[in-house]
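Key idea: predict the complex, not the pieces.
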Amino acid sequence: MRLNDAFGFGLRALTGARSRTWLMLLAMAIGVASVVVLTALGEGARRFVANEFSSLGSHLVIVIPGKVETTGDTPPLVGGTPRDVTLEDALALERSSAIQRIAPLVLGAAPVSYRQLERDITVMGSTAELMPIRNLELARGKFLPETDPTRESAVTVIGDKLKKELFGNRRAIGEWVRIHDRRFRVIGILKPLGESLGMDIGDIAVIPVASAQSLFNTEGLFRILVQAEGREAVPRARQAVIDIIRQRHDDEEDITVITQDALLSTFDDIFRSLTYTVAGIASISLAVAGILIMNVMLVAVSQRTAEIGLLKALGGRRGEILSLFLIEAGLLSVAGSTIGLMVAYGGVWLMGRIYPDFPLLIPLWSLGAALGISLATGLLFGILPARHAARLDPVVALAGR
Amino acid sequence: MIRLERINRSFVVGGETVHALRDIDLEMAAGDYLSIMGPSGSGKSTLLNILGLLDQPNSGRYFLQGTETTALNETEQAVARRDHIGFVFQSFHLIPRLTAAQNIELPLMLAGVEPTERTERVAAVLEQLGLGDRARHRPDQLSGGQRQRVAIARATIMQPALLLADEPTGNLDKHSGDEVVQTLEQLNSRGITLVVVTHDPEIGGRASRRIRMVDGAIDPGHPLTGSG
Ligand SMILES: Nc1ncnc2c1ncn2[C@@H]1O[C@H](COP(=O)(O)OP(=O)(O)OP(=O)(O)O)[C@@H](O)[C@H]1O
Ligand SMILES: [Mg+2]
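Result:
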């Protein structure tokens, strides 16, 4: 028998039994559509989170003094306490072409007072670069001036909560506050931003890094925030940080470098496995569709027993009968998944219309997986009825017994 | 052309053995016209099924055109059916969703004949049987006699040597039945070996050779039995 004849025969058999065919197409289409739509949703969620992350602070590399050993149980004896990461170290990082800007950070707790009011708050020493790196915004005034970072300067930018507590509704810009035992003039007020890097930005005072160093009497920095030139430059920036600091620290790598990518990729992994899980659950509906196909095909075989007997009487071989019924099941699967894909694309398009901010996307692998699984289930569950048909005794089949 | 030697066929039903055929010996030459009569349950259909390679005897030997068919495997038997044997059934066994032409085409399709050649041969046989204007009709749009003639066309499209008909007129009125018998006899006159199982003595009597079966055996004493 010729292959296209076999296909023609299968097609006529399917179009000859409309309601049965529609039922199976529906089951298959629902299965495929649910796999594709659910993976699109999962993938959309992943991309949504990724987008949120990159808007949070872009291409950030964070330098922490001291080596955090993630492997090995005995801390290195040689080297002892790590060396401070100094302001000079931080400024040296600007040499790298992979690094766009850096902001050194010195952190300490100190009392801040204005007239009789005093508050214990976090004082952050940094440079003008902190603002773009952390995406800070000002409610009023100016941020730290772009001067030589090694120079002290008695100015401060305060959080909005602190401003309210010290000044109430009065004007704060231009006023002098006392931090610890020094006086600083308020030049700007931060817009509330909520938590950032685990700190309440409303309750801080930002002062020039050199002033903070002398205020807290420390050479060492708490952190260096490094912004890479771009997303692709993050690994290079990271390597540059390590190389430069090691060179300055007598060939010892006594810092820890965290990239935001690491955090992001953790979330990425979570959402990806979520997508797989959802796709897996949806695949169950495909399997259900397969079982339905099997049942309906079995019914079809018993309804068409006489036909099978006839085909055998006419000289149809066992293999030919088998392939005729398998082709029928295969055609059903392909047609069903085509409808399912159309429904899925329609649905995703519609959801994209309703929620334009949610980055829905049908990943290519889900297409392949849905089609593959539907064809596989169709054929797998088609085999049983087809074999049943192929093995029928022609005399019994013709008699309809 | 056909030689049956001591063919036995029995069925086991509910622990009891039914002997459908007992030691059947039969010989036929090419072009013979044989009718098989006998009471219900006497084994006529079983004999026909064995002649048509649809069923296998429990013992005995069956030679078809010199080949011992009992030695063939399932696939070889299927091919032998396809190429050498045509069946006509009481209930026509046309596939309802297919047109007359498509039904007739089935054996050619199974044999892998070219579509263009198929169309030609189907058209020719339809013309020959006076069904030229019914090619695109489905079975439910045809009369009983027309359906049986479509079935005969399907049975003969492969130009088989042997045509087996199991009560071909059983579902037809007198007039269409006669037409169908004439069609079969026409084919026989052109050389096809024809075996007809029938209850109708008038139709059975037209055959040049008649056998009567009783209880799974050929009745030797019956006046109708013998070569014509
Ligand atoms: N598949 C089968 N299983 C069990 N018994 C069977 C089977 N086929 C035939 N028989 C038995 O074999 C015997 C002969 O049956 P067969 O069909 O050949 O009779 P028949 O002469 O064709 O009868 P009818 O004129 O009613 O068609 C009967 O007793 C029948 O019950
Ligand atoms: Mg019978």
